[in-house]
Design goal:
Alpha-Beta Plaits; 17% strand; 9 helices; alpha+beta; Rec A Protein, domain 2; disordered C terminus
C-alpha cells in the first residue's frame, strides 16, 4: 500500500514536471518567433537604402528632371529595363552629406530610399545581374547603404575578392562583413578578413595574409572610427 501510494505520488510529480516543461517549451517557441520577427524587421531597416556610387553632376540641367528622385527613377528605368507599369515608389533621393568635391572629380554618391523593401531588392538584383551600367562614359554601381564602419570592414576584403575573381572562383560578400566562397569541394564562409586571407593563402591563392591585431592599441588603430579621426589631422 505504501509502495502504491509512493508510485501515485511520483506519477503526480512527473505529470506536474511534464506540464511545466510543456509550458517552458511553449514560451521558448513564442520567444523564437518574436526574435525571428525582430531579426526580419532589423534586416529590413538595415537594408532600406542603397548607394548609387556615381551620378553625373548637374543632373537637373542635363536631364531636365524636376528633382533628384525623378532623375534617379528615369536612370533606373532606362538602364535596368524597368517598365513604366512597375512602380518604383522612390520616397526620396539625395546626395550624401559631405564636402563638395573639387571640380573634375567624382561627384558624391546618391542615397535612394524606397517605400517598398521588395522593390528595392528587385532593383538591386537587376543592377547586380548587369554588373552595373554606364552613364556618360562613367560606371555606375548600386549597393546597400551600409554604415561607414561596416563599409570599411567590407573594403578589407578587396584584395581577396580581386584574386578570387581573377581565379574565376565564385564568392559573395555577406552582411555585415563576411565572405562566402564557393570552392569546387564545397562552400566556405569567413567571418573575418584575417580568417579569409589565412585560409585562401593556405589554398595557394596569392593573397596577403592579414594578421589579427597584436595589442589593444593596434586594434584601436585599425578601427574605422579611429582611422576617420586620424584623417582629420
Amino acid at each position: 500500500k505504501d509502495t502504491k501510494a509512493q508510485l501515485v505520488e511520483i506519477r503526480g510529480e512527473l505529470d506536474k514536471a511534464n506540464a511545466r516543461l510543456n509550458d517552458v517549451e511553449t514560451r521558448v517557441a513564442e520567444h523564437k518567433d518574436k526574435l525571428q520577427n525582430t531579426d526580419e524587421i532589423l534586416s529590413e531597416i538595415l537594408t532600406m537604402q542603397f548607394n548609387v556610387i556615381y551620378i553625373a553632376p548637374n543632373h537637373n540641367k542635363k536631364s531636365g528632371a524636376p528633382s533628384m528622385a525623378h532623375f534617379v527613377e528615369k536612370l533606373l528605368r532606362e538602364n535596368l529595363a524597368i517598365p513604366p507599369s512597375t512602380p518604383l515608389q522612390i520616397q526620396r533621393a539625395h546626395r550624401v552629406l559631405s564636402l563638395l568635391p573639387p571640380d573634375g572629380s567624382q561627384p558624391r554618391s546618391i542615397l535612394v530610399k524606397f517605400l517598398c523593401f521588395t522593390v528595392k531588392e528587385e532593383v538591386l538584383r537587376l543592377a547586380w545581374q548587369k554588373k552595373g551600367f554606364m552613364l556618360n562614359s562613367s560606371k555606375i554601381n548600386l549597393d546597400h547603404d551600409y554604415p561607414p564602419e561596416i563599409m570599411a570592414m567590407r573594403k578589407e576584403y578587396a584584395e581577396a575578392r580581386k584574386v578570387l575573381k581573377e581565379k574565376n572562383v565564385r564568392f559573395r560578400t555577406l552582411y555585415s562583413a563576411r565572405l562566402k566562397v564557393f570552392f569546387e569541394e564545397g562552400v566556405k564562409t569567413y567571418n573575418t578578413v584575417e580568417e579569409a586571407t589565412a585560409d585562401l593563402a593556405s589554398r595557394g591563392l596569392p593573397v596577403k595574409v592579414i594578421t589579427p591585431p597584436a595589442t589593444p592599441r593596434e586594434k584601436l588603430q585599425r578601427c574605422p572610427l579611429w582611422r576617420g579621426v586620424g584623417e582629420m589631422f
